[in-house]
Design a protein that fits this description.
Layout: E1 33-35, E2 39-45, E3 48-53
Antiparallel strand pairs: 1-2, 2-3
């Protein structure tokens, strides 16, 4: 759904810096996304992080 609020359009290259949190309650702003060699991290609320494992395929 493209409602103009929850959409991202990129024409070209996008680069996102990586500064993974130390733990699930590290300082963070909701909507922040970062990674390391094992996980992608998403800040879902102030100082609340969730992560998903990365794997080769």
């Amino acid at each position: 759904m493209n409602d103009g609020v929850n959409a991202l359009q990129v024409n070209g290259t996008i680069r996102i810096g990586s500064s993974p949190p130390a733990n699930a309650t590290s300082s963070g702003v909701a909507g922040t996304i970062t990674w390391d060699s094992s996980y992608i991290y998403v800040c879902t609320a102030t100082n609340t992080w969730k992560r998903a494992a990365l794997s080769s395929w």
